[in-house]
Batch of 2 targets.
Target 1
Amino acid sequence: MPAAISTEGLVKSFGQTYALDGLDLTVESGEVHGFLGPNGAGKTTTIRILLGMTRADEGTARVLDGDPWSDATDLHRRLAYVPGDVTLWPNLSGGEAIDLLGRMRGGVDKKRKAELLERFDLDPRKKARAYSKGNRQKVALVAAFASDVELLLLDEPTSGLDPLMEEVFREVVQEISDREGRTVLLSSHILSEVEALCDRVTIIRSGRAVESGTLSELRHLTRTSIQAELVGPMNGLAQLSGVHDLREDDGRVRFDVDTDQINPVLRQLTEIGVRSLVSQPPSLEELFLRLYEPEAVK
Amino acid sequence: MKTLAGTSGLIRLILRRDRIVLPIWIVFLVAISVSYVKQYGDLFPTPDSRVKYASNAGFITLYGELSGTSLGEFVTWRLGFVPVMIGLISILTVIRHTRVEEETGRRELLGATVVGRHAQLAAALTVTLGANLVLAILLALGMHSQNLPLSGSIAIGIEYAGTGWLFAAVGAVAAQLSASAGTARGIAIGTLGAAYILRAAGDTSAHTHGPLAWLRWLSPIAWAQQIHPYGQNRWWLGVLVLAATVVLVAVAIYLSVRRDVGSGLLPDKLGPADGNLGSPLALAWRLHRGLLAAWTVGFALLGLLFGGVAKGVGDMMRDDPGIQEAFQRMGGASGLIDSFLAGVMLLVGLIASAYAVQATLRMRVEESSGRVEPVLATATSRWQWAASHLVFSLLGPAVALLAAGVAEGLAYGAAIGDVGGQLPRLIGAALAQLPAVWVLAAIAIAIFGFFPQLSMVSWAGPVICILIGLVSAGVATASWIRDISPFTHLPSLPGGSVTAGPLIALLAIAIVVGFAGLIGLRRRDLPA
């Protein structure tokens, strides 16, 4: 089965600034793919290109085996989109907006809609101008989840939702992914959400993908922190590649080591002689902080 | 005065945001007004010619009664529509900086800083009232520079600024009533319209010594007009207008402390839980129907008004060659009444082009607010979406013009006992404006399609055409200038002869330009 989304070398500039600078992104059919990056990294621009709202200056993009620009209308029957900041027609009720978007996409499943309204605890009779941000977000989520589509493009979809609703969102995404085999591209800043839902993630920065893979693959990219009490002097430790921030304090050493360099470092430690050893795996937060930092990837 | 904290900062913000549009309308209205002094002084040099020109029923409805025969009074009378425009602009400015700010949530952002409860309203009113004051001073100086007496020039400044002040206060009250800026605008502009109609009805009745002259004393527009600049200079009416403004501002403040930020006094009703909108066209209908209804009713009233007075107009100008000449420049046709009706149709067509541009620019509103994004993320193509809006921006003016034609035909036909004959003539005359209206709509489509950020420039079309229409009706104008306006190339109906060539050419231009715009829309990015 071809990938649900694949882009190669996408470039998009707005005047002087490059929003995308050679972005490669592959989302396999049936997976929930996390799309992460600091603010302004180009996540929304990418999604807008995938929706055919914006045309890339260079590079290719395929969505559901179609061209997102020229086949936009046909593709949109098969996908649903939730923006991070939903604006609605102020004088339409939430229910009207949900039905409108659903029908224009090709049909609304009434039962499904009622069930989702119930789960998200949304009153569809209120006029859009009376909704809070979280409730406007729910309108877009219900409209997207109630339609029978293969692909969901979710751009920071839970911004403004309370923790309970966030939980409902996770359940629904898990259901549509596990039971119905739908593909989801989830742009998000909420790491626990990404960890709970995503099979694979792509991290972008300054318009390029800096890492892509499963979360456990990505964990290998980062550093493990080690504290050890040594028998002898810490000879040669500083010269080993992959060792960072080495500090010695009264026979105790602390340092961070690149996870893929951990073996030679441990050999060196046991040669010196170890009295005690504490090793901490990298947390997700550390992983992202490191990848988000401008100087992290040269 | 803690409730006013931050007002000066907000005033600077408003001035920064309106730094272009505010000076433009002030200078534009002052320049138009001052230019009329020489134009109309040359055209109607004698008191006799002025009285004759001014005493037809159509003009009395439009501009009111002539208060005296001096040049200043005559020009003030002929400019009778300008205070209404000032009132309209003042309403829009106040609501734009109060209710719109609340509806978009920006007020909340600012309100959380050191900004007092009344600061937003105070800042919006200060700027609007101040702009009107500047306009009044410039106008007084400009009029005085045309050798009109200083006292009268100050009085006309007070008339204009007073109307602006009063309706700015009306806008401030309306902004408290509804949570929707659109509804607030509707309430305030409806009040302005009612004031105008009361003034027109009262003046018409007064002129014919009818029993309804008192109606005009219900209209704030008439209060300001009755100051009679360059004549009696009744300053006390200026005080009355000022007092009414103060009362309305007090009401607005009273209301604003009795509601929450973001909410109105009129409650929001619940809507249906299930919608039956299912297509871009249905959505466009929902978004355009209010506008369409308002313009259609307005055009029907306009048609009734002009159709009703047309017979009287013909009776009054039968024996004045100067007026005949003026009217023939404006409409140019055989019969005098026909040329009056043709001039009216031109005016109606020009107004219809403003509606066409407004309806076309709804697309830009949808785009810049981000609401187009979820729609185009469904199986709706850009062309389908644009076409569903264009149904209303192209056929909406047709419906409104039809309403004007029908109303005018019925009213004029009833007056001369020939409904069967006049109805089709005037419907035809009204619909004959459409090619020119569509050209201006097509230009708006093209600008939106290629340069969305410049969409507001589309308003230049109707404005330039209205200017050309106004100027060339008053004075002889070089033909290349008149030829810029597509309305110049329309047949003068009713009464004139129709040649297909120019109509087909205008339609062809509209189609080519409009399609080019749609291609531009399909090829460009949608700004985030």
Target 2
Amino acid sequence: MSERKYTKDHEWIVVDADVGTVGISNHAQEQLGDVVFVELPEVGRTVARGDEVATVESVKAASEIYAPVSGEIMAVNDALGDDPALVNGDPLGKGWFFKIKLSNPAELDELMDEATYEAYAAGQA
Amino acid sequence: MAATASDLKQTPLHALHIALGARMVPFAGYAMPVQYPTGILKEHTHTRTHAGLFDVSHMGQIRLSGPDAAAALERLIPADIVGLAAGRQRYGLFTNDTGGILDDLMVTNAGDHLFVVVNAACKDQDVAHLRAHLGSSCTIEVLGDRALLAVQGPRAAAVMARLAPEAAKLTFMTGAAVTLDGIACFVTRSGYTGEDGFEISVPATSAEALARRLLDQPEVAPIGLGARDSLRLEAGLCLYGHDIDATTTPVEASLSWALSKVRRPGGARAGGYPGAAIIERQLAEGPPRRRVGLRPEGRAPVREGAELRDSAGRPVGRVTSGGFGPTVGAPVAMGYVETSLSAPRTELQALVRGKALPVKVAALPFVAHRYFRG
């Protein structure tokens, strides 16, 4: 498994072989507040890096989730349908959103590592 | 961010909000707490099961006095103010010449004056409106040196009884001057959550001390604007600028109950307020559209701005407020639809991110009101 990488839009991705698991950062879930609904992409959909692929709804507002890399959606986290609060409770674990088969692994190099992201998120708070 | 923040006005409780760890957001020109560290869902539920303290000091507090004040105010709102007994409170609407709503307000007969509370975003415009039309008929004072706190929830009465037994004797939509913890306040039994509760007008200099005293009570937690919005939405209460505005009439807004009998056709003081002819015609003939409750069938919240369509896909209205109802445990919304489609259980569709989601017209409120009527 690769180290966890982050986007400027506060998504994270961890890659195992050529499949990445994607979620949102702890900073992002704190900013969103209580998550009440997650709309997930269709399995099999091909997306480009930066495409809107999911929507996370807190009590207050809806926020878009963007694909951190290009590829094909392989699986989605159905557990979020019954328990969207997993995004708040375990954003880096059980609160994952979807798995994506990378079509261009080189895109990972443009994402932030954990330390860089933490500094970036702290600057936004 | 910093420049914006510095332009915002602060309520007398600003330092307390910061000390409590609130997330502050701009609202109606003020820096206001949207939530505290506990979060909106818990704040919402706490208010429904215990008691919540809300800072609503951004709202406008106005004192109208003089022998003709009540009659004068009736020239701007279609409510019975002349017949409002001392100590009684009433909901009113400032209307415009086309029957639209300029603001909604609460009026209390405080004995020697009328105590009026208006929305923060409208208060400057409301004061100008009052001065332009009533300036020669009564004295208009903006109470800029007072804060407004709300204590809401099923335990609110027990909390108030501990601080001032006479406050807990008030019934829904009444008010009185009450000394709370040695502070001269004006208290009404009213609110914006659907729960029993109180609104406390307090001198700004004593506001933080009173708020801290209230927060010291074991039932009371601080509640931000986020939960205030979900609570009022579940209670089916309108948010000005969203569910009602200058283009919606009281009849369209399903607020005909706020048109007092004595001000309706056949009443002793019928009409005589802006837009009366249009509102009277809609009362008689029915409005072209109505505000209704909406229950999305799935889990996805349907939010303000979403287009509403009939079963054939024809646009028939728009959502004006919507989100997740924590007490309902499901998404809830309000919006306007053509009158022929306004009956409860009518099946409609709401357009969310390009998808037509099934919604049903639902009776309001979504959560039953629990006002204390004595």
